[in-house]
Amino acid sequence: MPDATGTTRYNEKMKRIMDAVELRQPDRVPVAFQASFWLARYGGISYRELMYNYDKAAEIMRSALIEFDPDQYYPVHATTIGRVSEAMGFKQIQWPGHGVGDNQPFQYLDREYMTADEYDDYIFDPTGFYLNKYLPRVGEAFEGLEELPKFAGLYYNHLLAQMRHFGNPGAVRALAALQKMAEESQRFIMHKIGFEKDMASLGFPVTHGAATNAPFDYFGDYFRGAKGILTDMRRRPDKLLEAMEKAGVLLLRHALANAKASGNAFVFIPIHWAPDSFMSQEQFLKFWWPQCRKIILGLIENDLIPICLWESVCTKRMEAIGDIPAGKAIYWFERSDLVTAKEVLGDVVCLRGNVSPSLMTTGSPEEVDASCRHLIETVGKGGGFILDCAFGIPDETPLENVRAMYQSVQKYNA
Amino acid sequence: MEENEKRLVDLVADMEEDDALACAREMLDSGVNPLRVLDLCRTAMDIVGKRFEQGEYFLPELILAGEVLDQIGAMAKPLIIQTSDKPAVKLPKVLIGTVHGDLHDIGKNIVTFMLDINGFEVKDIGIDVPVARFIEEIKEFKPQIVALSGFLTLAFDSMKETIEAITAAGLRDQLKIQIGGGQIDETIRAYTGADGFGLNAVDAVTFSRKWTGDFSHA
Fold it and tell me: How far is B159 from chain A (nearest CA, A)?
């Protein structure tokens, strides 16, 4: 770690990142650090412990930051969700001790959490739909909320009698479970805030404070499931479009509020359904991009910096997604060729990525070094580039390869 | 092909779900042999598969075609009178599953469907499949192709272990192995010892055809 005070180092790193975002040439190519379960291996603990033990996870992350000295790090608390998931009785993931083994990562379950004929319920009254249908389906702690009074439409003395439903057995149970969950949720967030403050004082900025999703991905991943959303595009395109219009407003509202609360200008948008091979360009321009663009622009208008992680290959989308104000966002490409991205999008967005997971896990440190050097010297030319893995450090990556990657930014420059 | 037969093929291939179902219902009600209706659906699926390969259709169309096929199948199958006069055509076999540790199945399901509509007998043994289960299934099902799916990076080692176990069981020479998933590339193909890898469902079909002879598209 260079010999400098935390504040100086923090400012140096932020300047390097902001130079990249604003498409200027930084003093050297910045490097980001995203690791989830790789940290468990690095620290010699089980995946399960990493998910449950806030202090231990933070201690390992701290050591990693001191060793690798990245310019930005992904919040470790995105992984330490064991306790709070248990308190919620989270049904959408399986995690160590809850469906998978102690050394397996948590995994999302692609299911239909909203049926096709419930689009109307969502569109008419999203909050009512959440309370009565959606929440009890995704978390055990919410079971019983459907017994609460149906607030919308109540008025004057109707309120007097209807509030008795707060005493329904399911509602009582749900409120008690949620109270308990809230305690864990508070502990979790306070720990996150404390840790990030400590790391900032050591000179390490966190990558982002808030996260959101494209409206299509929100419905596709978390409501309708893959099969549901894909058939909706053909069977009920108008309903899907109407629901996304509504959801877009809600997603942006949450992202703005969360970003404000975090005091961090970066907002992470992991993107799942945009790849070239998933839908036609025509479908992309109808169902996917305009709705996501609205969120991206909404964030930018509020002086926030979207970090869009374009999963898989999105080369055919590059021209369309370049239609945003220049120097205001980061596009992190997982498998798209960054040299092509530089040609198409180099004047518009800062690029991030993308040392391949196969190389990180099975290659030699020399090969990792060569790949990083290539990215730094080609994609980094003229600025506007942050070096990173394709989508975080793969859990199975040998330590020497991680070292090779973080040393490369000190050795090479654009 | 008669006019109403061509109509059914077109409706299914053109994603006109409601009309396709009504047309199939009408044909079955008027006494058309249910096996003929299913044959027509196969013809339509051939067209869907080709349009997908040519980049005209994408996942929404592939999934919807599968749904239409299932619904027409559900109408037609109860009407089939079992006959033993025609020996069943022997199709080349593919065994597919997501390797152990990985619970993802979207990609695997799409590959299964594409192989199925392209004339393979596909046995899908699900997700998080232990090595030993693959070995048992290979002995029992005797596939010419084994397809290993996985989305997470942990699948690299699971695929490698599975292929090593197939070799150790003395089964490697009688079959070809392909791997696929979000993170798979040539480096991982070489690492795992697979014969091929695919970036999408079309690659899976091309690989399987190559190693079993181009029986259905000769």
Answer: 13
